[in-house]
Amino acid sequence: MRHNVLACDYDETLARGGRVAETTIEALERLSRAGIKLVLVTGRELDDLLSVFPHPGLFDLVVAENGGLLYDPGQRTCDALAMPPPAALADRLRHEGVSPLGVGQVVVATREPHDVRVLGAIRELGLELQVIYNKGAVMVLPPGVNKASGLAAALDRLSLSAHSTVAVGDGENDHSFLTAAECGAAVANALPALRDACDLRLAGEAGDGVAELAGMMLSGDLDAVEVPRRHVLLGHRDGEEVRLRPYGSGLLVAGPSGSGKSTVTTALLERLVGDGYQCVIVDPEGDYADYPGVTVLGDPDRVPGVEEVAHLLEQPRQSVVVNLIGLQLRDRPTYFAELLPRLTGVRAKLGHPHWVVVDEAHHLLPAEVRRVPLGEAADLGSLLMITVHPDAVSAEALRLVTTTIAVGREPESTLAAFAGALGREAPSLDRVADGDIALWRRGDEAAQHLTLTPATVERTRHRRKYAAGTMAKDKSFYFTGPGERLRLRARNLHTFVELAEGVDDDTWLHHLRRGDYSQWIRDCLGDAGLADEVAALERADEPEPAESRQRVADLIGERYTLPAEPTAFDPDHDDR
Fold first, then answer.
1. Are the C-beta atoms of residues 355 and 391 closer than 8 Å to each other?
2. Where is the AAA+ ATPase domain (predicted)?
3. Would you give the DSSP letter of residue 168?
4. Residues 470, 491 contacting (CB under 8 angstroms)
5. Is 406 left (phi over 0), alpha (psi -120 to 50) or beta?
6. What share of the chain is helix, strand, coil (3-state, %, to 5)?
7. DSSP code string of 79-138
8. Domains of the chain
9. DSSP label at 366?
10. Which of 26, 28, 228, 531 makes the best surface tag, with the fewest CB within 10 Å?
11. Beta strands, E only, 442-544
12. Do residues 246 and 236 touch, judged by C-beta distance below 8 A?
């Protein structure tokens, strides 16, 4: 289920003439029994609302005074969400004969045409206040207080997310919270401007429209409603944007090492996290340990507990990296098999996380895994898997894929490997001159070539890959020694340090004096900072072999995490 919260305006949305029909009450009760949270968002003062609406307990929380007040019907507690306007304003309006005049805990309210006097009083008193209109009603509130801010406070109280919320309204003051919700709906009697701006136009008026929306939520029909403003930008083709749905997507990013998988993933994550979607990044290799805007659980000495992850995810604004660098490769599928049902459980309860990102998917969901406890990617919100080897990923996991992104110089080969793993025919590829990735949607006969829109900030480099992965042969370091009598290949920093400890002093000093170590680090690893530090050692007069070996190893260890033991049980090691 995409939406587990219904946020509803009161007057002329839920109610007609201040009264709510019994059929509408029954529709709300069905939603509540299904586990959907209900939030009432109204411009009315609380006492006024309670005098006409005898069922506030239907709602988990009530936002009153147009975002100024939060009421808990179960606890019967009330919290002001802002400071009230100065008493001088209400006194001034009373003195000028403004009537009706309502003074709540945060709001001062009247009706047109008294807005002229209200604006004059605000100006003459030198107050920083805003005036909000709604079908003739005039509400004075502190800056930034509206139905969207009130809804945000309610969702925070419930540990829920606006990206799991559908909101419904009818008037001018409903624009803000309909826009803040993942999907904004308008009843049939809504103002034309609101209906034109919303994501879903209901056929029913007022309470009938709310009951209609409730039925769509229960049946699952609402999940299929497209909300284009929420689609995630991927790239461009022929000058047109190419976007992905933020819900129900099963996305596979595949291609050879160094082909751009991380560039695609970083671009998508930057937009998702930036838009407030909660992401869980399951990171076997420690590549996301420095990713901005997320909390990292786990390090080389500690594997995060599944319950620890679940507890942190209760905060909907908090995206999480589950760093499994401390877990041996052979143990990762078992860990992920335990984590996955816990993630679906959190989502079933709270409506988030919204995206689960599985890096090195062939490690966590290898081909030998015959059962994946997911009916569809939507059970996790959306699923993104990243791999070098699509044919080494569980076929049960690959069946969840709705869209494949192939990167690298030969995307046709990657798409063919994915299709072959599922027993499907590979798609043709419709290339364009400036494309750099290929997109294949399930059910299409052809894949599209398009240009990726990159992230604005480059992600930190692949520290784990350089520490313990398999670098290409032309990127590896070779200890040859004077006269090139040796050819010892260091395929990563771990083997570099190991081999450095074992080579003879002449071989070590031969490369040190030539500056080979810093040049390799600079050119092949792209780490100019480490290269400069190593170069300083290389320039030293009469370097002592044991001391210089240890110092280079220490510099590498400070910047890169080296594993406790080699990860030889790894499909990436196909060139040993």
1. no
2. 247-411
3. E
4. yes
5. beta
6. 40, 20, 40
7. EESSPPPPHHHHHHHHHTT--S-EE-SS-EEEETTTHHHHHHHHHHHT---EEEEETTEE
8. 1-80+145-229 (3.40.50.1000), 82-143 (3.90.1070.10), 232-455 (3.40.50.300), 458-559 (no CATH)
9. B
10. 228
11. 446-452, 477-479, 488-490
12. no
Please state the φ and ψ torsions of residue 371, each to the nearest 5 degrees: -135, 125
pLDDT in tens, 267-304: 999 999 999 999 999 999 888 877 888 999 998 889 99
* Side-chain-facing half-sphere of 311: CA atoms under 13 Å: 6
Residue 257 has pLDDT above 90, yes or no: no
Other CB atoms within a 10 A radius of the CB of residue 379 amount to 19
Supply the mean pLDDT for the chain. 91
User: Taking Cα atoms as reference points, which of 289, 266, 272 lies closest to residue 353?
Assistant: 272
In this prediction, residue 543 carries a pLDDT of 87
> Dihedral angle at the C-alpha atoms of 187, 381, 425, 259, nearest 10 degrees?
120
3-class secondary structure, 408: coil
H-run or E-run covering 201: strand 200-201
Greatest extent of the chain over all pairs of C-alpha atoms, in Å: 102
Tokens 């299929």 correspond to: 224
- Examine the pLDDT at 466 and tell me if it is beyond 80: no
CA–CA separation, 68 and 309 (whole Å): 34
Using DSSP's 3-state secondary structure scheme, residue 322 falls into strand
Parallel, antiparallel, or unpaired for β 250-254 and 382-387?
A: parallel
Phi, then psi, of 186 in degrees rounded to 5: -125, 135
What's the confidence (pLDDT) of residue 523? Answer: 85
Rounded to whole angstroms, the Cα distance separating 327 from 241 reads: 40
Judged by DSSP in three states, 239 sits in coil
| Contact present, 223 and 357 (Cβ < 8 Å) | no
pLDDT in tens, 216-247: 999 999 999 999 999 999 999 988 999 999 99
Question: Is the pLDDT reported for residue 569 higher than 50?
Answer: no
Q: Are 62 and 150 in contact (CB under 8 A)?
A: no
Quickly state the pLDDT bin for 565 (edges 50, 70, 90): very low
pLDDT at 292: 82
Q: Write out the two tokens for 273.
A: 């996290």
> What amino acid occupies position 371?
R
528-538 helix and 545-559 helix, angle to the nearest 10 degrees: 170
Q: Supply the angle between the helices 505-514 and 545-559 in degrees, to the nearest 10.
A: 60
- Residues near 571 by Cβ (< 8 Å), separated by ≥ 6? 362, 366, 388, 389, 392
The H helix count followed by the E strand count for the chain is 20, 26
Helix (H) or strand (E) holding 547: helix 545-559
